Amino acid sequence: MSDNSPISPHRCLLYNEGLKPYLDVLVWQRQLLQERIENSDLEDVIILVEHPPVYTLGQGADPNFLKFDLDKSEYNVHRVERGGEVTYHCPGQLVGYPILNLRRYSQDLHWYLRQLEQVLIDVLASYGLVGERISGLTGVWVEGKKVAAIGIKVSRWVTMHGFALNVCPDMTGFEKIVPCGIKDKKVASLAEWIPDIDCLAVRPRVAECFAKVFGVKLQDVKIC
């Protein structure tokens, strides 16, 4: 099997959603995942969405990376089943949740993480920015600043959770945490390099790059 794409293209459903509460989308992801565990013939899915302000901790995340008292928090905080440390979601950050059956691609989690990074690197390249990987870490950086975080969960080779690309968010929310548990790396948004950028413009580029990297044909779907 090729390291770059599945053997043949197949259809992947694209849900291009607006601002959705984090927990609503989490429940939706879990439902999509369970349906695909029970029926491996169901099509793959990718959800593109933004969230109201929320902090999430991975399954084994260290709460010491929060700069506030978790028990007396004024912020929405959720511990979820993905890997990785604490992260922050808010409007202006584009979040992608692929629900993929990796048996169609490669049953290799490192391969999958690198493919997600490649999607984001290709998006950045379309704007003339050089996205970089840092050895030993997961995510994408521009000029040493982290612009995209990745955290996944895989059950029976079906994926959930995904990536978060800082497009034009209010970055002050990141000041309340040690993002992804990395103390010596700054976080940034694409707006630092492209001041007038917004998620509406970035969405089709993310979809296009995702389709190319994973070798799928996207079909737009709306929630009924």
Automatic annotation (TrEMBL):
GO terms for biological process: protein lipoylation. This is Octanoyltransferase. One of its GO terms (cellular component) is cytoplasm. The record marks 146 as: Lowers pKa of active site Cys. Keywords: Acyltransferase, Cytoplasm, Transferase. Its EC number is 2.3.1.181. It comes from the Bacteria. Belongs to the LipB family. Pathway: Protein modification; protein lipoylation via endogenous pathway; protein N(6)-(lipoyl)lysine from octanoyl-[acyl-carrier-protein]: step 1/2. The keyword Lyase does not apply. In the reaction, the free carboxyl group of octanoic acid is attached via an amide linkage to the epsilon-amino group of a specific lysine residue of lipoyl domains of lipoate-dependent enzymes. It catalyses: octanoyl-[ACP] + L-lysyl-[protein] = N(6)-octanoyl-L-lysyl-[protein] + holo-[ACP] + H(+). Residues 40-218 form the BPL/LPL catalytic domain. Catalyzes the transfer of endogenously produced octanoic acid from octanoyl-acyl-carrier-protein onto the lipoyl domains of lipoate-dependent enzymes. Lipoyl-ACP can also act as a substrate although octanoyl-ACP is likely to be the physiological substrate. Substrate binds at residues 82-89, 149-151, 162-164.
